Amino acid sequence: MRKSWFGSPLAFRIIIGLTLFSSVVTVVLTALQLYTEFDRDVSHLEQRIAEIKQGYASGLVTSLWRNDETMVQRQLQGILSLPDIIYLEVRDRDGAVISVGDRKSERITAHRVSLLYNDRGTARDVGTLTLIATLDGVYQSLFDRVWIILASNAAKTLIVCGFLFFFVQYLVTRHLTRIANHLMTLVPVGQISALRLERKEGRRDELNTVVEAVNEMQHRLRESQDALRSREAALKSNVAQLKEAKTALEQRSRALERLASDYDEARARAESSSRSKTEFLANMSHELRTPLNAIIGFGEIIAREMFGPLNNDKYRMYANDIIKSSTHLLSIVNDMLDLSQIEAGKTRLIEEIIDIHEAVGDALEFLRPDLIANNVRFVDRIDDDVPTLRADRRVLRQILLNLLSNAIKFTPPEGRLTVRAGRDESGRVAIAVEDTGVGIPQTEIETILKPFGLAESELHRDHEGTGLGLPLCKALMELHGGSLKITSEVGYGTTVTLRFPAERVERELSVTHGT
C-alpha cells in the first residue's frame, strides 16, 4: 500500500493547515502594517496643510486687507500647485468669494482658517480660507503596497510550505507508510519479521519508539498466539471431559429421578401411615377414656365406701391404687389424644385475655401438695408489670402444669423451683421455669422433645414418664406462634423458657401482684 509523495494525505493535510494558518497570519500582519502606513501618510498630509496655513496665511491676510484680489488670486494659485491640494476658497468680510480648483474627488479632507489682520495691536477679521486636500494619493500608495506585500508573503508561504511538505514526507509520512504496510502483512501463523526503517542508525526520536512498540507488539502477539493455541487445546480437552461429565450427570439425574419417585411413593405411604396412626390413636384414645373414667369412678366409690364399709384396709389400698393408676393412664391417653389432634391439624385455640400471675398461681395451687411432699421451695420472680396475654387458658394451664410437675419431680428435697416472667427487648413475653434438679445432658435435649423420647441417664431412670409431656408443650406453644427452649446442665438444674410473640401481648398491668 505504498503512496507517492504527492498522494500522502498526512503531508497534504499538514501543508493545507500550514498554508491556511500562514495566510491568516499574513492577512492580519499586512492589515496592521497597512493601517500603520496609512495613518502615517495621513499625518504627513495634515502636517503639510499645517505648514501651508502658517506659510501662506499672513500674505493672504495682507492682500485681503488691501483689497488686492489679483494678489489673492495669485497666492491661491501658488498654494493649489502644491501636492494633494485640489481646491481653495477665500471669503472676505463682505461675503465676496475667490476660489481656485475643483472638488471632483470623493476622498477629501477639508480645513477652514480664519484670516485675522493685526491693526495696531487689534486683531481684525478680514475673511476665511477654506482648503480642501485629496486623499487619492494616500489610497493609491496604500493599494500599491497591499499588492506588493501580499505577493511577497504568498511567495514566501508557498516556498516554506513546499519545503515543509517534502521535509514532513521524508522524515515522517514515508516511515508511517512503511509501518502501516508492515502491520498489514502480519499473519496469525508463520515467521514474523522485525520492523526496520530506512534511516540513519543512531537516531532516537518518536519514530524509534513507535518501531520498538510495533516489534514488542509482534513479540507479545506471537506469545499470545502460542498461549491461545495452548488454551484451545486445553479447552478441547475440557470439552471432552465436560461431555463425559454431562453423560455421568445425566445418568445420575435419571438415578435421582428414580430415587425421587421412590421417595414420593415412600412419603405418600408414610403420610398415609401417619394419618392412619393419628386416626387410630384418636379413636383408641376415645375408646380408652370411656372405660378409664368408669374405672376411676368405680374406684372412688369403693375407696369412699359409698355403698357400705369394706371391712378390710387392703381393699381400700387396692382401690386407691386403681384410682391412681387409672388417673395416670387417663393422663397419658389425654396427652396422646392432644398430640394426635395437633398432628392432624384439628386443634383449635379458644383465646382470651390471661393474667400471667393468675395462670402461674392457679397451676402452683394445683401442685402445692407435690411441692410440700417433695420439700421443694418455690420462688416467684414474675415482673409486677408483666403484660397480659391473648392465649388459650386451658392450653396454657396444661403447659404450666407439665413444666412445673416435671421440675418438682426431678428436683431433690430442699431444692428450689423458680418461675420468671417478663417482656424482652423484642416485645415478646417470656415465661421461664427453673429448677435445681438433676439436669439433662445436652445430647439428650433433642431426644426428649420428640414424642415418647426419654432421657437415658441413670439420674432419670428412677422417675416414671411417657415422653409425651415436653413434645406436647412444644406443639402447643407452636400453635400460639411461640417457642419452647430448654437449657440444662447436669447436676445444676434445668430451665425451660416459653416465648410468646409480641402480637399476643395485650396490655401492661397497672396493678402490683404480691409474691
| Adjacency order of strands in the biggest sheet | 6-8-9-11-10
* Total count of strands: 11
Q: What is the approximate shape?
A: elongated
What proportion of the residues form beta strands (DSSP E)? 15-25%
Helix content: 55-70%
The helix-and-strand class reads alpha+beta
Name the average pLDDT.
80
Q: Which segments are poorly predicted (pLDDT under 50) over 5 or more consecutive residues? A: 1-6
Q: Quote the CATH topology of the domain at 5-167.
A: Beta-Lactamase
* CATH architecture tag of the domain at 5-167: 2-Layer Sandwich
Let me know the largest β-sheet. Answer: 5 strands, mixed
End-to-end distance: 106 Å
What is the CATH class of the domain at 5-167? Alpha Beta
How big is the Rg? 64 Å
The helix/strand order is HHEEEEHHHEHEEHEEHHEE
Q: Give me the number of helical elements.
A: 9
